[in-house]
Amino acid sequence: MIQLQGIERVYEVGASPVRALRGVNLSIARGDYVSIMGPSGSGKSTLLHILGCLDRPTAGSYRLAGQETADLPEAELSRVRRHQIGFIFQFFHLIPRLTAAGNIELPMVFAGIPAEERRERARRSLEVVGLTARAGHRPDQLSGGEQQRVAIARAVVMEPAVLLADEPTGNLDSVSGSEVVRLIERMNTDGLTLIVVTHDPQVGGRARRCIRLADGLVVEDTEPPSRRRSAAPAPEVT
Amino acid sequence: MIERDVIRLAWHSLRAHRQRSFLTMLGILIGIASVILLTSIGEGTRLYVLSEFTQFGATLAAVNPGRIETSGLPGALGITIHPLTLDDAEALRRLPGVERVVPVVMGTAAIEHGGRTRNTFVYGVSSAVPEVWRMNVRGGRFLPEMDLHRGAPLAVIGPKVRRELFGEANCLGQPIRVGGQRFRVIGLMEPKGQFLGFDIDDSVYVPVMEAARLFNRDDLHEIDVLIANSSMIDPVVRRMRALLTERHGDEEDFTITTQTGMLDSLGRILRIVSLAVGGIGAISLLVGAIGILTMMWISVNERTSEIGLMRAIGATPAQIMQLFLIEAAMLSTLGGALGLGTGMGIAHVLRLYVPGLPVHTPAEFVLLALAVSLGVGLLSGLLPARRAAALDPVLALAAE
Fold first, then answer.
1. What's the total number of domains in chain B?
2. Domain A2-227 listed as CATH 2.30.42.10
3. Which of A182, B243, B314, B358 has an alpha carbon 20 to 30 Å from B305's alpha carbon atom?
């Protein structure tokens, strides 16, 4: 599903370049459940952005579902995000003016899907996240947990291959946090590739495979060595 | 992305800041309203003046003594102004292409009947007035065909004179005094209303010779010539000029004014007025455009994280640009439409309170105003929309 090879990302900040990623090799199988952890500044956000096609690597190759994305033009990258990737963010990122259903319809609006079909698909998505009764509510009328569930419905409504969750529980109390985690884990069980970026070991530890970053390198990967394609030898810590 | 959805999304964000959107619209609103109001009055005036002049017919040419388009000093060049005479009028009458001629001597005189006196305009004219001036007789008949050099104590009166002197009583055949001389009323004109504020109905028509005697002058104020048809205006005017120049000792000491020439110069003046009004409108629209630009710029900054989110869920830069452009265009078009309503509303109210004020808003002005405000919106939205489209999605998402 996902193949990263020699991914580097260098930011030009002032005089000295900052190397956020220094050669990451990673391969994630379809339907996998992966957590990416590491301290701030370890490069996990940068990796998430590259995985989500929001950012392009300075060097290296990223193949998503067999397609090389590193050299795609911006408009094409937008289309890859639209169809292949769903995002969930710590701060939900719902449009405050739109209702829950309106927010869920938004990706389909950009995809040019007709209103009739959008409504039907949004309705089904709301059903999946258990918020059918909240369809007409605006974000400020929803609790944090409900907002995140609307965001999840929005992320999966285009039926992407990969769900990228950036600190999905970071802004939630433990009850709604575990609700959200259970919801996305259920989607993973149904075949969605799930990648969670977090610094919460409670959340990250639930993944089938845990990847730990430090200083722009993968320093730990619990994937069985037989499946690993990483060229850089990562020290095994157990 | 479907157009209807773009409009819906833009509408949602405009509505989210109702007050701010309205205040931004105000610039365009005031601009369009003032332009519509001013042009409506301008256009109304043009139509009013046009109808005032054309009521006398388009193939009318007027000859007046003296030159208006003189170059140099007439005295130094030795041009003496010959008066227009009845013989000039008769000579003109014989020109091919000339249908009828009205020599005019005018002045004011006291009209008396049955102890009542009224000071009105007295026109010394010929029998051709009904055709040349396009006026109709309501009762009796107009002055008969006669030798211009001979008078007859006959008078035709306007409806206002009749009302003032006779009331509802019959006036035909009745004697009146014009400037102390006795005349007999043989005709009553139809009401014609006003010409540039001058009451045509308040006049008395007598044979030209009688007026000349009355006002003690032997020259004419004007000779009005009716040309057979409009395609002959230019050649006939040339012939008239040649004839009169010859008769006046090889000097062009008169002026021939045609309806078309008059309307042309009138149109030129009104065009300049329209241009000035358009300039004022352009300035106020520019101010409105800057308002929209500022507001959209602020809006892009405020909604940076929202733009990042849209990019993350699959919006292309072109789609983001489209959203903001349409938002700006809607803002100004809405402002323009409201301005249009305001301008036309004020024009309507003005018409109610100032009945004489000619106001007219042509349909093409309405469409033009809407098109212009749409264009203003698109132009002023361009910069902010491009900025929104160029945002880096990662940085935009991080903005809070």
1. 2
2. no
3. A182
Query: Which residues pair with residue A196 across a beta bridge?
Result: A35, A165
Q: Are B310 and B391 in contact (CB under 8 A)?
A: no
CA pair distance A146, A186, nearest whole angstrom = 17
Interval B37-60: pLDDT, tens: 888 888 787 777 777 776 667 788
Tokens describing residue B27: 């610039």
Query: What residue numbers bound the domain in which B392 lies?
Result: 3-52+264-398
Rounded-to-integer distance, Cα A59 and Cα A10, Å: 9
Q: How far B353 CA lies from chain A's nearest CA (Å)?
A: 45
Indicate yes or no: CB of A79 within 8 angstroms of CB of B316.
yes
pLDDT for B13-37, tens place per residue?
999 889 999 999 998 998 889 888 8
B3 touches chain A (CB under 8 A): no
Domain ranges of chain A: 2-227
Whether residue B76 lies inside any domain: the answer is no
Residue in B9, B305, B313, B397 to test binding to A, most A beta-carbons within 10 Å: B313
Top-confidence residue, B43 or B106: B106
**Sheet with A59-64: strands ordered across:** A16-28, A2-13, A59-64, A67-68
**pLDDT value of position B125:** 94
Q: Whole-angstrom Cα distance, residue B80 to residue B254?
A: 11
CA distance B395 to chain A (A): 10
Per-residue pLDDT, B70: 47
B97 shares its domain with B166: yes
B305 vs A49, A93, A106: nearest CB? A93
Collect all residues of chain B within an 8 Å Cβ-Cβ radius of residue A112: 1-2
CB contacts, 8 Å: B319 with chain A: 78, 110
pLDDT in the model for residue B400: 65
The 3-state secondary structure of A57-103 reads CCEEEEEECCEECCCCCHHHHHHHHHHHEEEECCCCCCCCCCCHHHH
Residue B248 main-chain phi, psi, to 5 deg: -100, 35
On whether both B301 and B350 belong to a single domain, the answer is: yes
Are the beta carbons of B12 and A98 separated by less than 8 Å? yes
* Shared-domain flag, residues B377 and B268: yes
pLDDT digits (tens, 9 = 90+) for B184-214: 999 999 988 777 677 888 999 999 999 999 9
Tell me if B314 and A78 make a contact (CB, 8 A cut-off).
Answer: yes
- Of A63-77, B49-63, B247-261, B303-317, give the lowest mean pLDDT range: B49-63
Q: Is the pLDDT of residue B383 over 70?
A: yes
Closest CA to B178 of B205, B159, B217: B205
Please check whether residue B75 lies inside any domain of the structure: no
Cβ contact A109–B400 (<8 Å): no
- Asked if B218 and B98 count as a contact pair (C-beta separation under 8 A), the reply is no
For residue range B361-381, list pLDDT tens digits in order: 788 888 888 898 899 899 999
pLDDT of residue B68: 62
Q: B97 and B159 in one domain?
A: yes
- Number of A–B residue contacts, CB under 8 Å: 74
Q: Please give the average per-residue pLDDT across B155-170, as a whole number.
A: 91
Same domain membership, residue B200 and residue B310? no
Q: What's the average model confidence in pLDDT over B76-91?
A: 78
- From chain B residues 184-223, the ones with a CB under 8 A of any chain A CB are none
Of the ranges B158-172, B263-277, B307-321, B340-354, which one carries the lowest mean pLDDT score? B263-277
